[in-house]
Amino acid sequence: MRRLYVLVAHALRTMSQCCWLERLAVARPPFVRCWQMLFKKELHIVNAHQNTETGDLIGAQRPIRNRAAVLEQLRQDLVVALSLPNSQPGQADLDSLLETYQSLTPQILSQIARKLRDRIESNFGKSKALFEWSDGSLIQAMKEGQFFLLDEISLADDSVLERLNSVLETQRTILLAEKGVENSFVQASDGFQFLPP
Fold this sequence. Notes:
There is one protein chain. The chain has a 3-stranded parallel β-sheet with strand order 1-4-7, covered by helices on one side. The chain has a two-stranded antiparallel sheet with strand order 2-3. It has a two-stranded antiparallel sheet with strand order 5-6. The protein has 10 helices and 7 strands. It has 197 residues and is α/β, with parallel strands linked by helices. α4 runs antiparallel to α7 (114-128). The chain has helices spanning 2-13, 28-39, 54-58, 67-81, 94-102, 106-110, 114-128, 137-144, 158-163, 165-168; strands spanning 43-47, 59-63, 131-135, 147-151, 173-175, 185-187, 193-194. The chain has 2 domains: 2-62 and 134-194, no CATH class; 65-129.
């Protein structure tokens, strides 16, 4: 067990992929927890089964939730961006605020903080959309440079496993065609590791 621990720890340090035989699977949970503690990483675990879909791993389009909260945040950001300090929270009408904001010149817009403008644009898009992309555990782990374990990988359908081929190659990338054209290419961050199944 010590030899196995050292070999896999070395593989994780060198960002190499590794796999072990099913007869050693009884030792997997303690080793995974040890690696997690050793490398101080978050561990994303998905238990595969015969009905596991690709969307369970990479994510999917989901209905936008909390639309009222998105609209309220948009209204508050517009009040701040338009510098309306005398405006009471319930007074400002969202439509009139949007109309005023959209009529601003590029010079005035450039004076508004970039982060605030980005949040306004994002929430404006969410207010008009019915669905939004929600990253799955694998994509979250790739973006954050964390560990990912697909437990009971042998139970997953072949089409699901084929979708993961590019993640297991040396480039460690995936193209999220289901997401659309914006930000659909994901490159794994340093530290991401697909742990041995």
